[in-house]
Design goal:
The complex is a heterodimer of chains A (about 200) and B (about 375). With about 200 residues, chain A is α/β, with parallel strands linked by helices. In chain A, β4, α4 and β5 form a beta-alpha-beta unit. Chain A is globular, with a radius of gyration of 16 Å. Chain A starts with 9 loop residues before the first helix and ends with a strand. Chain B has about 375 residues and is of the alpha/beta class. Helices cover about 35% and strands about 15% of the residues of chain B. Chain B folds into 2 domains: about 260 residues, Alpha/Beta hydrolase fold, catalytic domain (Rossmann fold, 3-Layer(aba) Sandwich), CATH 3.40.50; about 100 residues, Rna Polymerase Sigma Factor, Chain: A (Orthogonal Bundle). In chain B, about 50% of the residues are buried. Chain B is globular. In chain B, α3 runs antiparallel to α4 and α4 packs across α6. The longest helix of chain B has 18 residues. Chain B has 11 helices and 14 strands. The chains are: A alpha/beta (about 200), B alpha/beta (about 375). At the A-B interface, α3 and β3 of A face α9, β14 and α11 of B.
Amino acid sequence: MDNFNLNSRKDWTVISNIIENGSRVLDLGCGDGAFLRYMIETKFISALGFERDQKEVAKCIANGVPVIKSDLDRKLDFALDKSFDYVIVSRTLQELTEPEVMLKEVLRVGKKAIVSFINFGYYENRLQLLFRGRMPESKYIPHKWYNTPNIHLGTIDDFKILCNELDIKILQTIPIGKSWGLPAKLWQNMFAPTCVFVLG
Amino acid sequence: MEKTDKLIVTPQDFKLPESLELDCGKKLDNVVLRYETIGKLNADRSNAILICHALSGDAHVAGFHSVDDKKPGWWDEFVGSKKPIDTDKYFVICSNVIGSCAGSTGPRSINEATGKMYNMDFPVITIRDMVRAQKYLIDELGIDKLLAVVGGSMGGMQAMEWAINYPDRLLSCLPIATTSQLSPQSIAFDWVGREAIKYDPNYNEGNYSSDLPPSNGLSTARMLAHITYLSDESMLKKFGRSLQEKDDYSFNFNRDFAVESYLEHQGQRFVERFDANSYCYITRAMDYFDLAARHGNDLTNAFEYCKNVKFLVVSFSSDWLFPTSQSIEITRALIKNEVEVSFCEIESSYGHDAFLLEIDALGEMVSSFLDNVMQKGEA
């Protein structure tokens, strides 16, 4: 992977810092597998990706990343309990039919889960809705309301409440803001466009 | 194409050094394997790929037997110079399975003990028996570790038997459009096919003369099986309800429809190159194929020792003979063993035959997968 740029997505840096060398990692919605390949090469992880698009699956194979073509709305019944050190759910939760069911599955097969979450409560999104009266569109939510794959958008606070209801422990909360470093830390729900959660 | 560009391959015969022990408990003596190779084995013997053929295939996987030969091997679009399995890089081996009628020892071979054809005295063989015989050939060729064992359909069953029985003899395994156990539906189709052969007046309990084989029965078996290799969609696209060389129904039972004519043609072509007894023996081997059964009815146990083998499992969306769900079963068992595996269902309307026809989509995955296995070598 010659042109892989870790910095093209801030959550990737955060996630790769969390994962220990040699971990067994499952990435749900792994795209072309470039990120997993990066972690195979730098963190010597044993990786498995899930991807629903045939073209992306082919790219994963070309990247030397083990990948399963599957719709994530299937249960993860291929995997034994706690058989992965980490399960990455990278900006995919909002696309699932039953995100809460998937969250439970993820923590059945993974010792820990890393969820990269798009925060619908980010102030720019709020402003768009408040002043334009239109559904927000941004770098993280690039679609129109009628063609978006994001069918379950929520805010950071919504996500925390869901975890509480599901009895899922949030081990780490890492808000990711562009120039809003400090405010994003203090007022995550308002100033962090995305957030990485480590769940256990 | 210039004649000089033609890839010419020469079939070779290899006689097993000892009798072959079979799953049924019997031994088979003087077993000969017909095989072909393409490309060059490199100095460290690390670029060998074994291709396993399907039910009606043979050792002639690609290229031509002579300059004037018009018919290329059965996977010629897939195997050759600059093709998905690139014979500029890899040394490709394909051997005809035992039980067949295309050069390797089968029911129509002469039993040296009696001086007559085996026919129904030929022991019932299994997919594992086929692979056991192949292993002697790989030993003979001096290859300690195959880069890959690749096969579609019954070939995929053999590929998995390789990984399960000789896990330290291959780096990767590519079971394509296959299953870990034949479903009752497939067993049923095989049964009806064999019944058609048995009811042919020429059949004579398998002791038919070579001049008068049970061609009608074999042709019917092939027509039936051929339907299972297609899909509703591909038949609709290819034939629709169009009539063959006529404008109206004939109001009798001769062939009217293009699809009838097509099947008739497939049946006729098949009996010219295939033998009825071989058809019975090989379909029976597939009926008995059940990887889970040998391992306490748990497929996960079957792949217990495959941890160092990399897998690429491929299915096709419209294949209803060995549907995607069966490839997912295989994949799931591999993942449970923490085996490195990739699985892809390729979108296709061609049905089971897609593994021979979806050259581009399948080729891209297979060639890049092999590249990576070759690059990484032995971990």
